[in-house]
Amino acid sequence: MSDAHRSGCPINLTLEVVGDRWSLIVIRDMIFGNRRHFRELLTRSEEGIASNILADRLRMLVDQGIVSRADDPTHRQKAIYSLTEKGIELLPVLAQMAAWGRRHQPVTRELAIRAQLLEEGGPKLWREFMQELRETHLGAPPQRRARNRPSVGARLQAAYEAVAGGRKPGRGRPSARRSPARTRRAV
Fold first, then answer.
1. Which domain holds residue 34?
2. Domain-ending residue, one of 61, 83, 105
């Protein structure tokens, strides 16, 4: 047991890596929003993360092997962040957290719809989505999908847009008329 850890408890060790508020929000935005550049992660999240905190969390996630960082071939001054297998394997954890949040917190319908679909689809849907994430983030070969069946990511996004009435995710803050408790972001 390393002195760097409080204990060898698996829950404690996991929380030491992703237990702060912002790390899971960054991972969520990479998974569900396909946000892979610093600027996208900074400006398109409804929670409004500060740039210094985002830089710190990205650095920590890279150090922990949850996210990788590479130069963006389309722009010399940009980096592109990708989930690693460790990061992709957090999807079921986020799905379970979102399901719990839907049941016990005052979430909004448009921000909870993806959580609902993931809960209803269960582990089979999670595995399918994780494979799509491997294709996007790790360059895994594409898996065959049923003809005319959109990807899990596309289905989740379409459901969100249908419930949100076409409002694009991460575009500005929710209306001031809503109570702050009703603007929490769910998957």
1. 10-83
2. 83
